[in-house]
Amino acid sequence: MINRSSKNPLGVTLLIQMNPIPMATTDTYYFPIPVNVDEKMMQQHFLSDLSINSVLFSYHEERLHVLLLRLATSDHFMLPGGFVKKEEDLDDAAMRNLKEMAGLDQIYLEQFYVAGQTGRAYDPMARDALNKFGLKKIEKWLSDRKISICYYALVNSPELQLKVNEAIISEARWVPVEELPPLLFDHKMIIDKAIGRLQLDMDRKVISTYLLNETFTMPELQKLYEAVYQQKLTRSNFQRRMLNLNILDRLGKRNDGGSHRAPYLYRFKPSKIEMNLN
Amino acid sequence: MINRSSKNPLGVTLLIQMNPIPMATTDTYYFPIPVNVDEKMMQQHFLSDLSINSVLFSYHEERLHVLLLRLATSDHFMLPGGFVKKEEDLDDAAMRNLKEMAGLDQIYLEQFYVAGQTGRAYDPMARDALNKFGLKKIEKWLSDRKISICYYALVNSPELQLKVNEAIISEARWVPVEELPPLLFDHKMIIDKAIGRLQLDMDRKVISTYLLNETFTMPELQKLYEAVYQQKLTRSNFQRRMLNLNILDRLGKRNDGGSHRAPYLYRFKPSKIEMNLN
DNA sequence: CCAAAAGTGTTCAACCTACACCCATGC
DNA sequence: GCATGGGTGTAGGTTGAACACTTTTGG
How far apart are CA B195 and CA B172, in angstroms? Predict the structure, then answer.
């Protein structure tokens, strides 16, 4: 288990271990930009007007992070995403995309927005960067693409193994939400909306569990809330509020740590996960 | 102004005055089922994987109503909707659709859901009804159609003039949400989600004004809330809550009515409309 | 003057906030 | 013991539910 002590965090590598895998025949369409892709097959099997973008949230080092990909030809970042097969449920497509790209499975996934502005694909910054790949079909793709269904996902471990085409994506990293780098397209706006929705959902549903280890201390839970809402909370009141919700099991065990009273370990009551509050 | 007295409602006709207009060249694509439509033109100008469905809400006779259309070949109803032009923002498409169909303009419109299940077009009931039109292209349309972006709209007057193809839509009516008839496709589920979202939004934003006349009495406002939330509220507490929000102007004027104390008239403060609460 | 409907006040409980205090632990 | 950090208690304010009371109006 990762030691989350504030004084001496274990130092999870921000830079994700990338494990590039050569682009294969069918399973390559999960990447948001269809480079080196059989266009015919694309048209035949995928919905052409739609794409999916996913905002992956992870919580570590006491901060809320978002997974971002950097285009090899740019210093700008973008969100991961993919396409929807013709005979595939939207939610399934989003899930498949995350599984193919990052091996993620059974994570919390929520659709929160549809980006439908016509102008959204026409970011000149993105155009320039993509044109550097020298591929004609990207030009076409940019002018064709229209609607993006946006999901956010909760990931409880920052240690991912990404499968991306290294020629296109040169870097993938968890970035703290307070320190977002320049982003392509309308992805900044999408992330902002995702954070807003995450804040709403944290208030209404028992979803913190998807961002934490199975057991955690009360201060750890509080720091998660502070990271998501970007504000300090009063310790004693936070504790009472959480306990009064009656969604936590206190485990007799205690952490062993520094020179101070040992905190209790808590766990979300299994029956209460997926429950709505209020 | 419509007399909303509970004892003797004026009796707005539930059945909408339909004013059928012959299908013209371009402006006919607003109807959710492309019958008698130039398929080539459709493919050329519209996004093929998407449709829009709109849940129109109206409040009258102390009840929340939804606008439903009945297929001529069925006793089932469906939601109005339309398609998205290739170079058109999603929100604009939804607005254009309502303007073309019902002459509505500058109304409150909110996107709330995306219906993305593959099975959603395969309602056998709908298939049967549509096949009765004897048109081959409907079969194709049913197997092609995939994703529906769902909007809800707030309409403050039930008196609409609909433009629909009478050969296909034989009836259009405002139906109280507690008395929904059998619906085609997944439209029942979509309406339920729309109501849930409307309830959330009524709590968070100043949108009641889009369902009422410009001026109204406190009991009228309360009845709107009771219709939306499907539950009785305590009169005195409702009044205090609304006044404490500080979003209402009390107009000195009073209603003239029955043998009882005359209520004040209120109006939403213009500056507070579109404001978020909480 | 009475019934009916609208507006106002009062009480009580629940909850939130701030802050003080107590407990456990390693040095 | 004492600094540090986790856990609990308490006083004051706010909010909302329930319900009683007052005001206005037509008959």
Answer: 20
What is the mean pLDDT of the segment spanning A38-51? 82
Please check the confidence at residue A19 and state whether its pLDDT lies above 80.
Answer: no
- Which residue is listed with tokens 């961002």? A211
Q: Nearest residue (Cα to C1') for C9?
A: B236
Quote the strand ranges of B39-163, DSSP E. Answer: 50-60, 63-71, 77-78, 81-82, 108-115, 147-155
User: Structural domains in chain A?
Assistant: 39-204 (3.90.79.10), 208-272 (1.10.10.10)
CB-CB: which of B48, B89, B118 is closest to A49? B48
What residues pair up with A21 in beta bridges, in sequence order?
Answer: none
Closest residue in chain A to residue B91, using alpha carbons only = A116
Q: Give B-chain residues touching A96 at CB under 8 angstroms.
A: none
pLDDT digits over A201-222, tens only? Answer: 998 899 999 999 999 999 999 9
Q: Which residue out of B147, B186, B204 would a mutagenesis test of the A interface target, given it has the greatest number of A Cβ atoms within 10 Å?
A: B147
Q: Per-residue pLDDT averaged across B234-249, rounded?
A: 92
Strand residues in B30-140 grouped as ranges (E): 50-60, 63-71, 77-78, 81-82, 108-115
